[in-house]
Amino acid sequence: MTAKEDKHFTSSFQYSPVDQAENIANKRRVISIMGALAEAPLDQLPDAARDGYAADVALNVTHPINELRGIAAGLDQLWRPLRRALPDMERRENFVAGGRYRDGDWVACMGHYLGSFMEDLLGIPATRGVVHLRFCEGHELREGRIVTSYLFLDFLDLMRQAGYWPLAPSLGREMRWLPPRTLDGVILRPQDEARSRRTIETILKMHQALGYYSGEPPTRAALDEMEQAKHWHKDFMWYGPAGIGTTRGLKGFEDYHQIPFLVAFPDRGGSAQGHFIRIGDGYYAVTGGWGYLQATHRGGELFGAPPTGKRVKMRVMDFYRCDDETIVENWIPIDVPHLLLQMGVDVFGRMRHQFRQQGALSASDWLVKGN
């Protein structure tokens, strides 16, 4: 296989066997750490952070929080504002999987924070009513503490729930993400290693086939080059982030996401930095990259934004459930506000200006400075 064909760097992947007891212990530990950060009394939040995080923890959070280093920064810029915004917050997990990648122990989680939205968050106006905030995460553990986290919080969907929408209407359906149909996504029992290996290899074969795309306009013939029909269940569910929405089956996926995405980013592909996580755990798998997927914005219509010609980096994870042969469900957090910022669209700037938050720029300053 040539480098051009292997755009997603799948051919060099080697599955790492796991100790099942240790893997389950890691998952329980992450559930405990993240549960304490979400639900411990506010005055106990520093203790919860010190118990769960390494002192120099690297926290990579969706825009506009972005990269944080150390416990103090995590508390000040993420956890205290979030907890004050949702003072009665609950953490509800639908998916917890674990495994080893690049000599590290990883745990991935997906679910929702639920609570009463009582204080503004990042300029998003509080509704004083119940909201759900979608979370998707990858955590690297070392000696019982989290040393690196990738935290995808769908702030754009929270804007939607607050009654503000800064983009063209989503092509897919905006809806609350459903849990796995089998309701077994929180994996706290030993899994067959051969099954886990086969699941992640199923995913990577699909990734590899995505690399067959020629970059030509996505006609039926060009789409068929990627052979996606043989990798997906005929009625698969594809849960996209706010701004893209949810689709069902290959036709829905092509019409409402894949074709607009390929028109916008015809040269998309993996970069040499690679994924930060690639794990299989029973019938479930997780991959993710923080700037790994890169492309040139050459076409319009996606998010209603005209082409800019700019090179962009995408922050994205994929959570998968498979059956014996195909992919049945796929949940995809993408840092859409960060992607849009690279395309010249600052959704948080628009929101601050519209709602006249304290410290907001004047219309002229915002338009000229682009902040």
List keywords for this structure.
371 residues; alpha+beta; Nuclear Transport Factor 2, Chain: A; 2 domains; 7-stranded mixed beta sheet; 6-stranded mixed beta sheet; globular
Can you put this structure into words, describing what you see?
This protein is of the alpha+beta class. Helices cover 30% and strands 29% of the residues. It has helices at residues 20-39, 45-52, 71-85, 155-161, 193-210, 220-224, 249-264, 336-342, 347-355, 363-369, and strands at residues 53-61, 66-69, 90-101, 104-116, 130-142, 145-153, 232-239, 246-248, 269-270, 277-281, 284-296, 311-322, 327-331. Strands 7, 8, 9, 10, 11, 12 and 13 form a seven-stranded mixed sheet that branches. A hairpin with a 4-residue loop joins strand 12 and strand 13 (327-331). Helix 1 packs antiparallel against helix 2 (45-52) and helix 2 crosses helix 3. The longest helix is centred in the N-terminal third of the chain and has 20 residues, at 20-39. The mean pLDDT is 93.
Give a summary of the structure in a few sentences:
With 371 residues, the chain is α+β, with helices and mostly antiparallel strands.
Strand content: 25-35%
Q: Report, as a whole number of angstroms, the end-to-end distance.
A: 44 Å
Supply the CATH class of the largest domain. Answer: Alpha Beta
The assigned structural class equals alpha+beta
CATH-assigned fold name of the largest domain: Nuclear Transport Factor 2, Chain: A
Largest sheet: 7 strands, mixed
The level of helicity is 25-40%
- In total, how many beta strands? 13
User: Which architecture of the largest domain per CATH?
Assistant: Roll
Low-confidence stretches: none
The succession of helices and strands, N to C, reads HHEEHEEEEHHHEEHEEEEEHHH
Total helices: the number is 10
Mean pLDDT: 93
User: What count of domains describes the coordinates?
Assistant: 2
Radius of gyration (CA) equals 20 Å
